[in-house]
Amino acid sequence: MNFLSHFYFDRNTPNANIVLGTILPDLLKNANKSWNVHPEKHPELFSNKGLNTLLQGWKRHLQVDLLFHSSEFFNTKMQELKQLFIPILKDSPVRPSFLAHIGVELLLDHLLIEHQKITINSFYDNLEAVKEADLTDFLDRCNINDTELFFKFFNSFKSSRYLLSYQKLENISYALQRICMRLWEQPFTEKNTYDLTSILEFYKIQLEVDFMVIFEEIEFRLT
């Protein structure tokens, strides 16, 4: 799941550290894809309150992703979107399964916003409320050796409020292109870009019918 979908499950928590923890695994990977840490395996290192709540959110993230990616809902929706992408990607280096995976996740974020299931400004307010000392200590205990790099990325992530752009469907298409450009130099032609947006518009209508089912299912199964 993407940032806002993770936030959905802790949208009402009064603890900002938990909220940040729920997206911290993805933030770290975005800041530096080589960072591969597992604080959940060493809970004894995160025993004080500030660190423990970050770890609580981190573990929540892992549980939500496991439930989501193993669900029939995700696999069905991803296969449906993949089949729509296959014809338009025959001359592109982008794998249809990869694009469908990310596409379903971003469309879920978009639908949460459109149906007012979350408030984006509340998400960012929580990130701003986290004490830098707690986060720095957490990263140190994860053996992240370049906290300056992380905070440069994190502060930019907060100040840009980029996720506000997910309110418009055309920006979901743009976000998918940006993700693909990290992996392929020229992922799309102009025609690909036009077709991608058209498919997202078409599939959004289908996904919208029952998109809350997966959130309800995961929320019921969370411990």
TrEMBL record:
UniProt-listed InterPro entries: ACP_PD (IPR007431)
Listed Pfam families: ACP_PD
Protein's UniProt name: DUF479 domain-containing protein
Organism of this sequence: Pedobacter ureilyticus
Phylogenetic placement of the source organism: Bacteria, Pseudomonadati, Bacteroidota, Sphingobacteriia, Sphingobacteriales
